[in-house]
Amino acid sequence: TEELFKNKKDNAEKSHTQKKLQNKIAALEQAIKEQQEAIDTLDAEMKDLNAGRKKASEDRKAEKAEYLNTVAEQNKSIDLLRQALKVLKEVYSKVAEGVLLQEAPPVGGPAPKGFDAYEKSRASAGIIAMIEQIVTDCRNMIKEAQYNGQNALDSFAKFVQTTNEALKAKDDAKTDLVSQKSQSEKDLTGA
């Protein structure tokens, strides 16, 4: 009877150890599964962050091209308007000096009523002022484009920095999970 009791006790201990080992194996398998799911999730998140950073880079490249185009167009407009102003000022200054006035004898008699002598147009100052205002508007558009370009650049730099920090944190977390998973697999093999 003592031997029977000892066999039952040994069997109970073995059964208990076996159940304990099976529970440990199940827990390790579950841990490995959860760790792999977490690694896969981190990989997907990192892929999304990289795609977002790439898209932001493409958008920034397009914004920069638009900025450079706007500045170039406005500078070209300013140059053309300055040339026009120079010509107009020369013409109107010559008119004011009487250089362009030609005294020709009236053909067909005296000038009709309501026609005065040729003199500087009062509208010349308005035309010159209007062109100068357009030049000012072009300069303002350049300043606005520069301001918007700098804001876009600052936003892009901040986004890239934040994205890089998030990628680093996720990569560190992934490294930790891979290490934990390897340890769990080693423990499972040893069990």
First-to-last CA distance: 34 Å
Beta-strand content bin: under 5%
Strand segment tally = 0
Q: Please give the share of residues in helix.
A: over 70%
**Nearest-angstrom radius of gyration?**
43 Å
Q: Sketch the major β-sheet.
A: none
Uncertain spans: none
**Derived structural class:** mainly alpha
Describe the secondary structure blueprint for this structure.
Elements: H1 2-97, H2 123-190
Plain-language structure description:
The chain is mainly α. The protein is built from 2 helices and no strands. Helix 1 runs antiparallel to helix 2 (123-190). The longest helix has 96 residues, at 2-97. The chain is rod-shaped, with a radius of gyration of 43 Å. The two termini are 34 Å apart.
